[in-house]
Amino acid sequence: MTKxxxxxxxxxxxxxxxxxxxELGAVSQTKRLAHAADEMREAMAYQAGINxxxxxxxxxxxxxxxxxxxxxxxxxxxxxxxxxxxxAQKNTRDLAVALRKSGMTVRDMGEILGVSYQRAQKLxxx
Length: 126
Description:
Blueprint: E1 3-11, E2 17-21, E3 26-30, H1 36-48, E4 55-62, H2 65-101, H3 106-113, H4 117-125
Parallel strand pairs: 1-4
Antiparallel strand pairs: 1-2, 2-3
Helix pairs in contact: 2-4, 3-4
């Protein structure tokens, strides 16, 4: 049976990430955030008295407030960009279909859409 534990990771003063699982009282550190879960796995398994493979570790990064705010804004903007990109792709496909239905050649469609004629043909048929 796998149990999920949260590990907090906060940047220490000596260029390392300080890791803590408050639930188990396990503490460690790592130079790379990507290694946080692996770094904590053995210590947490020992503290909990279970097999390391039975641990599901979620790493929660704690950032200074001003950086956390910047991250939130960047995440929101990336989501908005992805939404706009999806809309642009759909609108481009719709335009390609409309151009094709109006009798345009794929070469003319490519010029209008700003893509190769092969891409224009593919857009018009999807």
